[in-house]
Amino acid sequence: MVILSATKFLTAPITSLNIGFGYVETLLITTLGGVIGVFFFFYVSSFFMMLIAKLTSSSKHKKPSKPKRKFTWKNKLIVHIKREYGLIGLAAITPTLLSIPVGTFLAARYFSDKKKVITYLSASVIVWSVIVSSVVIIF
Fold it and tell me: Which of 61, 63, 81, 91 is deepest in the core (most CB within 10 A)?
């Protein structure tokens, strides 16, 4: 359940309650899994970005052709959230709309204050865990 919370956060409370866990157990499992996912994916993303930066800097003498970017509704949403709402907006939509791995990667890529990124994303996971678990238990 913890791994499910770290990757597919929105489905974890439903699955947890269907398995037979109570409200408090579901809340603890989804919160713990989500926060672990934030830390894990933040540091993995940072490592991969550093690795890619090293690889691209060593091959600067070659001029790679950049493929034309394709703007999907998700890309437009991410750019809009980043410009209009910043880290708080990205953190707010990460657990539910983007998923923890994708949102954490974007936050690690576009925002430099590591402590702030992890704090906001973890707080968002906690808030969404309470909201989603409460809605699932009520309905």
Answer: 91
pLDDT of residue 117: 96
Q: What pLDDT digit, counting tens, does each position of 3-59 carry?
A: 998 998 989 988 998 899 999 999 999 999 999 999 999 999 999 989 988 888 765
Is residue 66 in some structural domain? no
Plot region of 86 (φ>0 → left; ψ -120 to 50 → alpha; else → beta)? left
Tally the domains of the chain. 1
d(CA 2, CA 30): 6
